[in-house]
Amino acid sequence: MRVTFTVNGRPQEADDVWEGESLLYVLRERMGLPGSKNACEQGECGSCTVRLDGVPVCSCLVAAGQVQGRRVDTVEGLAGEDGELSAIQQAFVDAGAVQCGFCTPGLLVAADELLEHNPSPSDGDIREALSGNLCRCTGYEKILDAVRLAAARTGQGV
Amino acid sequence: MEFLRPATWQEALAAKAEHPTAVPIAGGTDVMVEINFDHRRPDHLLDLNRIAELEEWETGEDTVRLGASVPYSRIMAGLRTELPGLALASHTVASPQIRNRGGVGGNLGTASPAGDAHPALLAGGGAVEAESVRGSRLIPIDDFYTGVKRNALAPDELIRAVHLKKATGPQQFSKVGTRNAMVIAVCAFGIALHPDTRTVRTGIGSAAPTPIRAKAAEEFLAAAMDEAGLWDSGKPVPPAVAKQFADLVSGAANPIDDVRGTATYRRHALGVMARRTLGWTWQQYRDHQGSKSCA
Predict the structure, then answer these.
(1) Residue B7 falls within a domain, yes or no?
(2) Which EC numbers characterise this protein's activity in its record (chain B) (predicted)?
(3) Hey, where are the domains in chain A?
(4) Does domain A87-157 have CATH number 1.10.150.120?
(5) I need a surface site. Which of A130, B31, B179, B181 has the fewest CB within 10 A?
(6) Which of B30, B34, B36, B46 to mutate to probe the A interface, most A CBs <10 Å?
(7) Which domain holds residue B261?
(8) Per-residue pLDDT tens over the stretch A116-157
(9) Is residue B14 part of a domain?
(10) Using H for helix, E for strand and C for coil, what is the string for chain B?
């Protein structure tokens, strides 16, 4: 089947999509957007997190056909057109929140959404917002630092 | 495989009538796992995401008609007062990403004994609105779960909504798992006080082939509280009564040993959760009584 939807602001079309295929597979294998990572395929790890009509979801659990006509935003859409990193991306770099990097795209999408709705989150808010994203390297402390840093910088900018 | 994409509820019912083996998919948090892991290859997937009314709820005088696809994140945020037990249970579902997609209709359709919503639904009380091209019917929640991952739906029926009694008293939910987020219940317990009828209802998850109520425990507690005049006096529940209630809840369970826990552990944990949640709800009831008499 054919699926047409908006990815990072651009209309996209995928042909010959298998009916049981996930949105994650379409993004990675058909649209050349491998930023969203494929790990558990059962919604446990959050490394495939994207936003569907603005809402963070596991793209491995969305059937490709379900996104017809809808808006999907992936980690590739965070940086500016000129490649300038977004606030949360820069904060991850500066705080040393990245080790192997596999969980990072999902965490960036989840953290970006948190800060969009809650510009000065408490530690509890951050932990809850990121509770669907597993990291096996960092022990999370640097990730929490990065989100606090992004929140502080964004707050200063306003 | 064919992907059916009805634009309206009527179209969805017609598609289900034409293809009774079609698997409905809404949040996808159960169905896609099975497809990703090659555990299931349905002939037809029936996508319900385009049917807006499934994601809405209506609040009546005594009940909430909760659309089957209202995501857990919106139940948590919007129905804390009307359905406190279900709101608490919703908050324990997996992760934010999953709560943004999954809803009660999926829990009911899958009918896993570990579904987080079930204990709250059983304790709060209500009925499942099932519909087909033949018509609509309300299945009492007590009659809905018929076996391990089996329910009372006919092959041509879809879940439109659940009709849930608005809370008339405190409700609590407790779940045992190895961590706070993204955990399937080792076992779970829901309790709802119903001061309007002077009854208590319960729900047990992950400790029997289906979600169940602990009816002997409910009846014992209602009788003991009545006898001691506790609903009027608001006095503490005597420890012996709480203990007997906990023992009866343990006894109602019919758990198995599996990778998540042993039957013995599940029975023990249920007793602990029953005692604790009774304590919490009763304290809430007493606080509410106290604030009423002050005002």
Answers:
(1) no
(2) 1.17.1.4
(3) 3-77, 87-157
(4) yes
(5) B179
(6) B36
(7) 52-295
(8) 999 999 999 999 999 999 999 999 999 999 999 999 998 875
(9) no
(10) CEEECCCCHHHHHHHHHHCCCCEEECCCCCHHHHHHCCCCCCCEEEECCCCHHHHCEEECCCEEEEECCCEHHHHHHHCCCCCHHHHHHHHCCCCHHHHCCCEHHHHHHHCCCCCCHHHHHHHHCEEEEEEECCEEEEEEHHHCEEECCEECCCCCCEEEEEEEECCCCCEEEEEECCCCCCCCCCEEEEEEEECCCCEEEEEEECCCCCCECCHHHHHHHHHHHHHCCHHHHCCCCCHHHHHHHHHHHHHHCCCCCECCECHHHHHHHHHHHHHHHHHHHHHHHHHHHHHHHHC
For testing the chain B interface, which of A37, A53, A58 should be mutated: the one with the most B CBs within 10 Å? A58
Q: What pLDDT digit, counting tens, does each position of A29-77 carry? A: 999 999 999 999 999 999 999 999 999 999 999 999 999 999 999 999 9
CATH, residue B58: 3.30.465.10
Is B21 among the domain residues?
no
* Within-domain flag for B181: yes
ipTM confidence: 0.96
